Amino acid sequence: MVSLRFLSLTCILLLAACTSHQQRPAPSRDAWKLEGKLAIVSTNQSQQANVRWVSQDGDYDILLFGPLGQGKIHIRKQGDKIELTDGKDKVDAGSPEELLYKTTGLTLPVSLLQYWVIGRPAPDIPFSYKHQSAYGQLTGFVQAGWQVHFDEYITHFPEKIKMHNADGIKLTLVVKKWSRP
Prior knowledge:
By secondary structure, this protein is α+β, with helices and mostly antiparallel strands. Helix content is 19%, strand content 47%.
């Protein structure tokens, strides 16, 4: 009799715990946040940065920073306004690529990266598929002169993304965490 009461009480407590626990919604293609590390290698330089990237309804907020928060670069797009803050300086330009080039000398496809990091090619720009996994996940494509390859996925989002172009620029993004903004 005691074991039946104990079993009933255990079941009730487990059910109560399950119903009171609310899971955080998974990221969607329109609203997501990632945290990870970005490596940039070109013919004459190599850099690494931590990255926090929030994207929602076409706007985004990208924070790149070194160890212990040093060397912050903040790229923010809200509507048609795009700005980059590099420490104490704030720079505006017509595109995120122009902003990044003005401040760092790097030419990177920031506008396309917002699609590539979620495992899809940018819309309205020609591309060619390279491969798909047995699960139907895209493992690679070529777009705008960049080869993009996805090594692994976390649920439906890439965990490791490798990109390179003919100029010898290589990007590797390793995502440690995907979530909703």
